[in-house]
Design goal:
Length: 297
Amino acid sequence: MIENPIVWPNGARCAVSFTFDMDADSILHVAHPKDSATRVASISMLHYGPKVAIPRILETYRRFEIKQTFFIPAWCIEQYPAAIEAIVENGHEIAHHGYIHEHPNELTREEEAYWLDRGCDTIKRFTGQAPRGWRAPLYNMSEHSADLLIERGFSYDASLMGDDVPYLLRTNAGELVELPSSWALDDWPQYMHSIDLDFQMPIQSPQRAVEVFKAEFDAAWEYGGLFIPVWHPFLSGRLARWHEVSKLIEYMMQKGDVWFARMDEIAAHVQRSVRTGVYTPRIDSLPYYQGPVKANK
């Protein structure tokens, strides 16, 4: 089913990293820059992430003794230092997720570089080290993003959906590990309902949502894949939903042969495997196209 499965550490069948995009209310301020402050109910919904869900999530991770990765806009790092301090103190990775959830593919190269650098400076100031990984806000990677990340020494990207296992992105600037996910592993289609954010999906029960996630995990476990959900604290961190996720983690541990790891650890394993010749990943050369694609007459 997977033509080139990677060998995971200690004979694990698959790698698992529960990644959380802690956007908080940054997404509201981007969506409604003129009047976001007046949308009080939406602000409260988004505050649930750093104020209520993050402590709950961290407690579960402590109970299961796992370390994971949080992608956080730098503006949110500045706004919610208590949540960031708790994440760092518990040994989890903080990765780059834009400055205020701006969309890179709507920016010039210079603008994108500015916000990328500003976010790097913030993460280094709060955590003591430069970020190793990046996920484009709303997956909106631009044709310049990979070059900018490579030039700044990032080891991995987590914005794309091109495989079931890690692969490499190659540009004129060098190479970058891609740790892909998919919309099937995103909690937005399952739970998100907000008039202010222009996304009104029928809200699924936690059991139905976890059924989708569990099916993806079981397939990754069966065939040696990568399980990287893209979740949001204000969505998946709510009480009933996180209750079901806790049971999912317990199921994974009972099944066994699962490598729970931070994304920077997974990227380092991929780089080591490539360097020693035990893994030959697929390589995507970027940009995919040099400009707009037009049909020939």
